[in-house]
Amino acid sequence: MSFKGLRPIQYGGREVWPLIEGGKGVAATNHASSGAWAAAGGIGTVSAVNADSYDANGNVIPQLYPQRTRVERHEQLVRYAIDGAVEQVRRAYDVASGRGAININVLWEMGGAQAVLEGVLEKTRGLVTGVTCGAGMPYKLAEIAARFNVNYLPIISSARAFRALWKRSYHKVSELMAAVVYEDPWLAGGHNGLSNAEDPQKPEDPYPRVKALRETMRAEGISDDVPIIMAGGVWFLREWNDWIDNPELGQIAFQYGTRPLLTHESPIPQQWKDALRTIEPGDVLLHKFSPTGFYSSAVKTPFLLDLQARSERQIPYSRVEAGEHTVQLDVGVKGKNFWVAPKDLERARVWASQGFTEALKTPDDTVVFVTPDDRNEIRKDQADCMGCLSHCGFSSWKDHDDYTTGRLADPRSFCIQKTLQDIAHGGDVDRNLMFAGHAAYRFKQDPFYSNNFTPTVKELVDRILTGD
User: Fold this and answer.
1) Which of 58, 130, 400, 463 has the highest local Cβ count within 10 Å?
2) pLDDT band for position 2 (cuts 50, 70, 90)
3) Distance of alpha carbon 142 from alpha carbon 169, whole angstroms
4) Domains of the chain
5) Quick one: DSSP state of residue 242?
6) 263-292 residue pLDDT tens
7) 3-state secondary structure of 351
8) Which range has the worst mean pLDDT, 3-7, 171-175, 277-281, 364-368?
9) Residue 47 vs residues 57, 80, 84, 86, 272: alpha-carbon distances, Å
10) Model's pTM, two decimal places?
11) In which region does residue 378 sit, left (phi positive, over 0), alpha (psi from -120 to 50) or beta (all else)?
12) Coil, strand, or helix at residue 206?
């Protein structure tokens, strides 16, 4: 029995529940969680973002990069990514046992995204039903889907973004566009699609935005049977009662990214699962420290708070005396051509006295003050870059042409590959980036999880179908 009016949809030639598992990159979803979600009758999503591979004994193969150059390390990363995602898809397909459907998820902004996606689809023909893809403007998604005859489900955060993708590319392969994922840029976990026109401090109601998306789709001749998948902030289906069977919105489905983290099959370490139960309202921060340049949402761990504090220890400078820059900086830098405002010189001296003795230049003509240990770690992480993004603000890497963004590496950011691999494989949750949606505080409030109860994926899907 399912919640009011929620009916199965046709997807990939079979009936599935309109419930999608969000694909969380770098080993936060894998075959066990995705296969189980499909087996429960929904659409499971294997993350193809640096997924794990296994040795003959079933142990995770550590992703190591002994190569000398960034380009060689990047090529190694692409090999790991293809091998891992192929392995995860095959295993998820077996777990699903012919029920539900298996999608894969890729970030268009990940390094070598096109090569990874093509490599995975080539080796998993007949196993993958569709590809979800966001983080950037993936114009090539439709043509790649057509080449391998799989569905594609673009992830967008506004009607405007969808219209641009449709006009430029997707209208040519309209028959394979199985759904459009609307990801709420204020509520979803991980990387978010906030545009420059939108205020990160002022969340907008998703209903008018999704209604506008459906109107845009209708104007382009897209059937109401093509679902819009609501992603970000989805917890209880009963809270979306007005969306189901609503003629203004057409067919609606729902994506769950955060809730499946706390299941038996979820691959994240126990320390991470335990931490999810302690999150309070407001503990998830929408921030712009990611080296992608996108906004993203993560739990306010000491790791994230350190990044926040680092950016606050920041002052502008110029190379010559000009305007209010009338005094020379005499802490944290070598040389005399750092001119700053007198008030900033005082602040810099205070930071230096507190142990933040190293000033690192940013691409924006400012310096940030860090400890010697932090400086050494930042420099090492920048030098070890393995090119996991198409453009990385932290290391100045670019995955094509001359392999550099041409901008100064930014010490206000961090190596995202390093921290996500670490937290997913047992690293300290306090010392790493912990992505989560803004509804994560509900683990602590939802009676379903009381007395430390952890559901199986099947129990979670069954619970969601009751409206709770």
Assistant:
1) 130
2) low
3) 7
4) 9-284+436-465 (3.20.20.70), 295-415 (no CATH)
5) G
6) 999 999 999 999 999 999 999 999 999 999
7) helix
8) 3-7
9) 22, 13, 10, 10, 18
10) 0.95
11) alpha
12) helix
Q: Which two tokens stand for residue 465?
A: 């179908």
Residue corresponding to tokens 């602590």 = 444
Determine the Cα–Cα distance for residues 88 and 63; give it in Å rounded to an integer. Answer: 15
Q: pLDDT at position 1, please?
A: 52
Q: How many angstroms separate the CA atoms of 224 and 250, rounded?
A: 5
Show Cβ contacts of residue 266 under 8 Å, excluding neighbours closer than 6 positions: 28, 29, 32, 33, 260, 273
Helix (H) or strand (E) holding 315: strand 314-316
Looking at residue 337, its amino acid is N
Looking at per-residue pLDDT, the higher value among 212 and 195 belongs to: 212
Does the structure show a pLDDT above 60 at 106? yes
> How far is the CA of 417 from the CAs of 27, 287, 444, in angstroms?
11, 17, 29
* pLDDT score recorded for residue 278: 97
Q: What's the mean per-residue pLDDT of the chain?
A: 96
Please state, in angstroms and as integers, the Cα–Cα distance from residue 458 to each residue in 93, 118, 239, following that order: 16, 31, 21
- Banded pLDDT at 3 (limits 50, 70, 90): confident
| Residue of 111, 107, 122, 99 lying closest to 34 (CA atoms) | 99
Q: Which two tokens stand for residue 58?
A: 């079933």
Rounded to a whole number of angstroms, the distance between the first and last alpha carbons of the chain is 13
pLDDT (0 to 100) of residue 335: 84
Query: What's the whole-number mean pLDDT along residues 176-204?
Result: 94
- Locate all alpha helices (DSSP H) within 101-247, ordered by sequence: 113-123, 141-148, 159-168, 206-219
Do residues 22 and 255 lie in contact, with contact meaning Cβ atoms separated by under 8 Å? yes
Phi, psi of 378 (to 5 degrees): -60, -50
Determine phi and psi for 235, rounding to 5 degrees. Answer: -130, -75
Residue 317 pLDDT greater than 80, yes or no: yes
Could you tell me if 149 and 127 are in contact, meaning their C-beta atoms sit under 8 angstroms apart? no
Query: What does the alpha-carbon distance between residue 100 and residue 104 come to, in Å, rounded to a whole number?
Result: 14
